[in-house]
């Protein structure tokens, strides 16, 4: 099972095991990562699963975001960066080992 790292805005790291096939949002919820809310359950209607994927190689390896994700990212509460993604749209794969997910300070 790949391990991925959630890094909070204060620098706190939490390494969790992530089941292949789940989204990063689902892994966060199941792992008690409170900074990710995922209020719409992954239906691209809330943007409360905003994260930053700062590793350029990793970011480039992810599927490009859809027009709907792009639109939702316009409404995130914390600054949108080039590395911003909605974690419900990122699936865990066998290549996810070592993925570092930076958490914004808030989702509201
Ligand atoms: S969980 Fe709502 S947009 Fe990702």
Textual characterization of the structure:
This protein has 108 residues and is α+β, with helices and mostly antiparallel strands. The chain has a single domain (3-102), classed as Beta-grasp domain (Ubiquitin-like (UB roll), Roll), CATH 3.10.20.30. Helices cover 19% and strands 18% of the residues. It is built from three helices and five strands, in the order E-E-H-E-H-H-E-E. It has helices at 24-30, 56-61, 67-73, and strands spanning 3-7, 13-17, 50-52, 84-86, 100-102. It has a three-stranded mixed β-sheet, with no helix packed on it. The longest helix has 7 residues, at 24-30. The radius of gyration is 12 Å and the shape is globular. 32% of the residues are buried. The site of FE2/S2 (inorganic) cluster has 14 residues, from loops.
